[in-house]
Amino acid sequence: LLLTNYLKHCAREPGTPTLEPPKMTVLHHTVDYLKQHYWSFFSSY
């Protein structure tokens, strides 16, 4: 579900409203968690 919401957000047309705030909040927290816990993986790119 989170990946689907993220892809929908990325594929939206310019000017289209973003996701509802709760979903976006979850996405931001998920990204922060992944960056914090897997920083060594992401820093190699």
Blueprint (SSEs and pairs):
Layout lengths: L1 H10 L9 H17 L1 H5 L2
Q: Report the C-alpha radius of gyration, rounded.
A: 12 Å
Largest sheet, in brief, is: none
Sketch the topology as an H/E string, one letter per element: HHH
SS summary, helix count: 3
Poorly predicted sequence stretches spanning 5 or more consecutive residues = none
| SS class | mainly alpha
Please estimate the helix content. Answer: over 70%
Strand content: under 5%
What does this structure look like?
There is one protein chain. This protein has 45 residues and is mainly alpha-helical. The chain has a domain at 1-10 and 23-43. It is elongated and about 35 Å long. The protein starts with a helix and ends with a helix. It has 3 helices and no strands.
List the main descriptive attributes of the protein structure presented here.
3 helices, mainly alpha, 45 residues
